[in-house]
Write a structure and sequence with these properties.
The chain has 2 helices and 13 strands, in the order E-H-E-E-E-E-E-E-E-E-E-H-E-E-E. By secondary structure, it is mainly beta. The strands form 3 sheets. Strands 1, 2, 3, 4, 6, 7, 9 and 10 form an 8-stranded mixed beta sheet that branches. Strands 12-11-13 form a 3-stranded mixed beta sheet, with no helix packed on it. It starts with a strand and ends in a 7-residue tail after the last strand. The model has no long low-confidence stretch (mean pLDDT 88).
């Protein structure tokens, strides 16, 4: 991804206190080999994506979005990705960052040929020391990484139990002397009803 010239101008303006408000991602299929910083819009747009998650770490922000294949009418080769931010002067959103895979790319199936239901798209961009970063988060937020799930389970105090089946008896162990009402999880080692 490259921050566009328009994106750099917007970033410079945002450091005076205005902030940056990101609005969407857009996917396209054009193989563009020119100056990525000069691009002002996705060349051949095929799919607009709502932002579903935003996390800042220092001078970078990571966005996630979910591509639902059922919303893609016709399959295309995904080569372009653009991140848009709100124009503080009104008017059309500004292409903040742009990436292009050239002749390479991933095929995105259309709704009638899709074998997978959804794909999580994650994008990290630089925002320097801009103090006020916001986003239009309206997409599905139910997707999390496995490490995030494990951290949440640990924070909740969920006990991981061991499961074994001896004959017709199923046995769960691992409470370590804990009593009372507890949340637990286990991976079934054998079929059970």
């Amino acid at each position: 991804m490259t921050i566009t010239d328009a994106g750099l101008s917007l970033l410079a303006e945002s450091m005076t206190g205005e902030g940056l408000h990101f609005t969407k991602m857009e996917m396209g299929d054009a193989a563009y080999s020119g100056n990525l910083a000069a691009v002002t819009a996705v060349v051949s747009p095929k799919c607009e994506l709502e932002l579903s998650h935003m996390a800042r770490s220092g001078d970078q922000v990571t966005f996630k979005s979910v591509l639902a294949f059922r919303e893609v009418e016709t399959g295309f080769t995904w080569r372009e990705l653009g991140l848009y931010a709100q124009n503080p002067d009104g008017g059309a959103d500004i292409l903040y960052a742009y990436g292009n895979a050239g002749e390479e790319g991933d095929y995105i199936p259309g709704e009638t040929e899709a074998t997978l239901n959804e794909r999580v798209i994650q994008l990290t961009v630089a925002v320097a020391s801009t103090p006020n970063i916001t986003a239009e988060l309206s997409g599905s937020g139910i997707f999390i990484e496995y490490s995030e799930l494990e951290a949440a389970i640990e924070e909740l105090g969920v006990v991981t139990l061991a499961h074994v089946k001896e004959g017709t008896v199923h046995k769960l162990t691992g409470l370590g002397g804990q009593t009372g009402l507890l949340m637990g999880r286990f991976k079934a080692a054998a079929d059970f009803e």
